[in-house]
Design a protein that fits this description.
The protein has 14 helices and 17 strands. With 443 residues, it is an alpha/beta fold. Strands 1, 2, 3, 4, 5, 14, 15, 16 and 17 form a nine-stranded mixed sheet that branches. An eight-stranded parallel sheet has the order 6-7-8-9-10-11-12-13. Strand 11, helix 8 and strand 12 form a beta-alpha-beta unit. Helix 2 runs parallel beside helix 3 and helix 4 packs parallel to helix 5. The chain is globular and about 65 Å long. It starts with a strand and ends with a helix. Bound molecules: zinc ion (ZN). The site of zinc ion (ZN) has 7 residues, from loops. This is Cytosine/adenosine deaminase. GO terms for molecular function: deaminase activity; hydrolase activity, acting on carbon-nitrogen (but not peptide) bonds, in cyclic amidines; metal ion binding.
Length: 443
Amino acid sequence: MDYLIRNARTILTMDDDSRELSSTDIRISNGVITAIGPQLEQDCEVLDASRAVVTPGLVNTHHHLYQTLTRAVPGGQDALLFGWLQTLYPIWSRFGPDEMRVSAMVGLAELALSGCTMSSDHLYLYPGGARLEDTIDGAREVGLRFHPTRGAMSIGESDGGLPPDMLVERESAILEDCIRVIDAFHDPSDGAMLRVGVAPCSPFSVSRELMRDAALLARDKGVMLHTHLAENDEDIAYSQAQFGCRPGQYAEELGWVGDDVWHAHCVKLDSTEIDLFAHTRTGVAHCPCSNCRLGSGIAPVRQMRDAGVKVGLGVDGSASNDQGNLMEEARQAMLLQRVAFGADKMSAREVLRIATRGGAEVLGRHDCGQIAVGKRADIAIWDVSGLESAGSWDPAALVLAGPRQVRDLFVEGRQIVRDGRITTLDLPRLIEDQNRLAARLGA
Ligand SMILES: [Zn+2]
């Protein structure tokens, strides 16, 4: 179906010239933006945007969608990273395929309403017969562009690792399943709705050999690599004690830097590691709310951006956020840089660019992330006629004031949200399913 988004009050294009257009139309045809300009021909479905700010869809570069079933778990609410994980591992070990699919749909629906059109996911445990396709099925139902990564853990408690033995897999089985899901689902083409990545959970839950083999496999298959890195002080201490080096050096030695790699958190990167990431074009998924929630620290995003590191935003899993609102995440990212470095160190416009085009670049999607002719039609339309926008002087109020939910959302030219409601789902029923599963887990 073709659409005309008519007479937008402001379009924040995030194109190469960072153009901001007023009283302008956008034409969408076959999933692509085909024209931008005033008073385009109205020979298709028309959406009035005269009371709206229009942006590219936001991009979420880090999530564990399964964790929407374990929000606000009492024993995990106030713990640091390692203690938090040890509280949650036994609960996650009771998951199965239904839990994976339903929780993914809940997380993606929440993201969609917050303006997100594309999300990655990092699924690193497969209890009860769960498989990566459980989340893929869920994403197809919701309709978001999806980059699931085949995560893994292989060092259990009995080998000195953090996770219980029941949640770890044999390394040969992990690599075999990576090959299976890449061959079955990965789509390298322009406009792809689904791309698969390879993602051992973290340096403290898999071996050096698996990190190296995963990198070799990903390069052989032409897919991206993702993991957690340098998340907090415990993480750095573990790296120095176990590997005798900092996380950046460990990553570099094992092939984990490059344009096809992105790392979550990177709160503790030092200036040498920032330079390494910049000159190798390695990406970072910045997750400010999760970093605050777990007390991990403030990622040096200002220094990363100044050095030329690719940075996107991630809401991270709902056990450590506990909400999945990407516009809220953008605001938090801006505030954290300001509290650490000063009020002039991160503007609302810059953080909005990180949330859209920045994320698309981190995920290797040069076909997405901006409103420009020829790019994919992933578009968020924000109603600025409501209470939270009343009295606003500037479209940057989107980050500073609100709204926090979209009016309309297009993914690949398909309308996923209309007038604030998801078109692809029976949302009350999904919420009921999710709460039933949470109750079964012992919530
Ligand atoms: Zn994470």
